[in-house]
Structure formats: structure tokens, C-alpha cells
């Protein structure tokens, strides 16, 4: 397939590629097998959009190990990719292992209670994901009570993303304070040294003037 040739080229390039958009190209699980093998070699890739392709649950499973090994992907698009709860579980396993993923789009997929539960659990151990896009309305279930469960899980997922956002903000502010405090001693040390140098120079001038006076008195005597 065409994706196989693209993946071979990506293996050769390795560096430089930051964004790869393969939106609506009729890609299937077969193509995702090529992509899964390629991802560990593309350590610069930050955005991967595979939306509107019928890759299905098997396709996501083919991607999972490659995404985990990649460690560089920050944004992943899987909207309208024929995922169900089974595929969501595979995605959740990737989320739990990812220390860098910032955004994930899973809209327009048939992810119901089981899949949402897996995603919610993954967010309890993930501290990087800031945005997880899911359909707002719960999917139809055979058991009506599951609709309320879906709503509760959607809220938990969004709260997990909000928590990560707050943690990221606090970490950034803490790092800024550490940088500021690290530079403060340089200011407090240099200023007194300058004052001491001026005092020493003034003392030297006074000693010189006193020496001149003594010499003059000796000449008079």
C-alpha cells in the first residue's frame, strides 16, 4: 500500500518530521501495522492524525506498542476510526504508559461504558494528558442505567484532564521560581563586592594623602 512506502521513507528520515496528517485516506488495520513498526524510529513526531480512517480496534492494537516506544507524540487524532470499547482499552493502555501525550481526539467512535471506564482508570496514572475529546452525548446501551454511568465517567475523564492542567501549571510556576532564586545570589554577592572595592580605593587614596603630608613635614625639619 501507499502507507508502506511512506513508512519506509520515515524510517530513513528519522529526524525532522513533526506533523503527520493522514486524514481520510481509507487506511485500515494493515496500514497501522506498518505505522506501528515505524513509530519507534520517528522520535521527532509530535502530531499524528489518523482520523476518518476505518482502522478499527485491530488497527489501534497494531499502533499501541509503536506509540509506547515512540515517546515523542504529543497529539494523537483517532476521530471516526470505527473504534469500540475494545479499541478504547488499547488506547487507554497507551495513555497509562505515556509521559508526554497532551491531546487525544476520540470523537465519533462507539465508545461505551467499558471503554470509558478504561480511559478513566488510565487518567488516574497519567499526568500529562490535558485534553481528551469525546462525544458529549452518551452512546445507546441495552441497560438504561449505563447511560448515567457513561455521563459520570465522562465527567471523571474531564476532571482528570483538568487536574493534569493544574499540575502542569504548578510545575511551570515552581520551575520559574527556582530559576529566579538561583539567579538571586549573583545579585546579592556582586553588589557588596563593588562597595568593598570602592571603600578600599578610598582608603588607599587617604593613605596616599597622609604619606604626602608626612614626607612634607620631614623635608621641613
Automatic annotation (TrEMBL):
Compositional bias per record (Acidic residues), positions renumbered to this chain: 192-201
Keywords, in A-Z order: Leucine-rich repeat, Repeat
InterPro entries xrefs: Leu-rich_rpt (IPR001611), LRR_dom_sf (IPR032675), PP1-Reg/Actin-Interact_Protein (IPR051279)
Residue ranges of the region described as Disordered: 174-221
Pfam annotation, one family: LRR_6
Entries under SUPFAM superfamilies matching the protein: RNI-like
PANTHER family, per the entry: LEUCINE-RICH REPEAT, ISOFORM F-RELATED (PTHR24112), PROTEIN PHOSPHATASE 1 REGULATORY SUBUNIT 37 (PTHR24112:SF9)
Assigned protein family: Belongs to the PPP1R37 family.
UniProt-recorded name of the protein: Protein phosphatase 1 regulatory subunit 37
Organism: Micrurus corallinus (Brazilian coral snake)
Amino acid at each position: 500500500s501507499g502507507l508502506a512506502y511512506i513508512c519506509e521513507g520515515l524510517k530513513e528520515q528519522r529526524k525532522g518530521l513533526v506533523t503527520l496528517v493522514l486524514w481520510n485516506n481509507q487506511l485500515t488495520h494493515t496500514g497501522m501495522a506498518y505505522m506501528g513498526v515505524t513509530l519507534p524510529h520517528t522520535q521527532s513526531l509530535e502530531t499524528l492524525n489518523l482520523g476518518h480512517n476505518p482502522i478499527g480496534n485491530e488497527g489501534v492494537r497494531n499502533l499501541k506498542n509503536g506509540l509506547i516506544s515512540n515517546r515523542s507524540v504529543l497529539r494523537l487524532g483517532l476521530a471516526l476510526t470505527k473504534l469500540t470499547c475494545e479499541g478504547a482499552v488499547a488506547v487507554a493502555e497507551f495513555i497509562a504508559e505515556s509521559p508526554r501525550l497532551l491531546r487525544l481526539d476520540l470523537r465519533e467512535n462507539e465508545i461505551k461504558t467499558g471503554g470509558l471506564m478504561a480511559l478513566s482508570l488510565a487518567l488516574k496514572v497519567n499526568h500529562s494528558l490535558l485534553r481528551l475529546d469525546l462525544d458529549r452525548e452518551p452512546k445507546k446501551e441495552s441497560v438504561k442505567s449505563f447511560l448515567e454511568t457513561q455521563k459520570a465517567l465522562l465527567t471523571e475523564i474531564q476532571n482528570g484532564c483538568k487536574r493534569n492542567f493544574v499540575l502542569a501549571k504548578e510545575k511551570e510556576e515552581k520551575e520559574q521560581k527556582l530559576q529566579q532564586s538561583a539567579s538571586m545570589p549573583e545579585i546579592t554577592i556582586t553588589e557588596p563586592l563593588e562597595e568593598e572595592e570602592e571603600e578600599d580605593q578610598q582608603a588607599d587614596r587617604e593613605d596616599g594623602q597622609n604619606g604626602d603630608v608626612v614626607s612634607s613635614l620631614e623635608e621641613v625639619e
